[in-house]
Amino acid sequence: MSRELFLERVRRAVRQGQAYRVHVSPAPAGTGYVGATGDLCEVLAREIEEVGGQAYVVADYAAAREFVARLLRDEQVTSALCWRHAVLEQLGLDSLLAELGIERHDYESLSALALSQQRRVQLACDVGITSVERAIAETGSLMMWHGPGRERIASLLPPLHLALVHRSQIVPDLFDAMGLLIDRGAGNLPSNVTLITGPSKTGDIEQQLTTGVHGPGKWRVVIVRGE
User: CATH number, domain at 72?
Assistant: First the structure.
């Protein structure tokens, strides 16, 4: 490969990478804490869009339920890998999936299956539906704490990840989110913590930015203001 051809491929990969915001503005000298301000629901939604996801701010759980139903129909979802979480219970996720005729799989139902069958079921799911521990408005990131009933695989394996976030879960900055872990103490930490910022992206293959190779290619976040 000639030098010019190689450089042109690098330039093309850089242009593709610029489709997503990957830089931050430097803080002025002497600046201390820098966190998001204003309407945190709107700030979070804007930052999610900037990193390649799609965010939807709704007024309450009734509106969220209607929106989620429409999204699942549009995506032609037939099976879902789901968390157990208070926000999803407020949404009425179990009854919603039943109304739509979508097969629901979670920690309890999968635990009753042989390991080989668990894997087949998980690989066949069209969507992973989760909530979050905290959502970080400044960067559009979701902080996930994992354990039984809140498996990491739900946000990593299916081609579509749908996350439900309530306003009470949104914090301005990463420092605020990490403070929750500090408050728990070293002896009471979750088994795993994941920060998700945008859909799966990689530039490993011939320096070409590709979405959805190492995880979900579609990332949808529904933000509930009220209740």
Answer: 3.40.50.10420
Query: What span, in angstroms and rounded, lies between the C-alpha atoms of 78 and 72?
Result: 9
56 occurs within a structural domain:
yes
Residue 52 lies in a domain: yes
User: What's the Cα-to-Cα distance from 83 to each of 3, 51, 96, rounded to whole Å?
Assistant: 50, 24, 14
Q: Confirm whether 141 is domain-assigned.
A: yes
Contact 69, 116 (CB under 8 A): no
Cα angle vertex 166, ends 162, 170, to 5°?
100
Q: How far apart are CA 44 and CA 172, in angstroms?
A: 9
pLDDT 10s digits, 149-176: 999 999 999 999 999 999 999 999 998 8
Strand partners, 221: 55, 163
User: Is residue 183, in this structure, part of any structural domain at all?
Assistant: yes
> Which contiguous run of DSSP H or E holds residue 86?
helix 86-91
The domain of 113 spans 37-224
Query: What's the half-sphere exposure (Cβ side, CA atoms, 13 Å) at 13?
Result: 16
Domains in the chain: how many in total? 1
- As a whole number of angstroms, the distance between CA 142 and CA 199 comes to 11
Asked if residue 171 lies in contact with residue 137, where contact means CB atoms within 8 angstroms, the answer is: yes
Please list, residue by residue across 81-100, b when 16 or more beta carbons sit within 10 angstroms of its beta carbon and e when fewer do.
bbbbbebbebbbbeebbeee
Model confidence over 23-45: pLDDT tens digits?
A: 556 666 766 666 778 899 999 99
pLDDT, average across residues 167-189: 87
Q: Please name the residue that has the structure tokens 């099976």.
A: 79
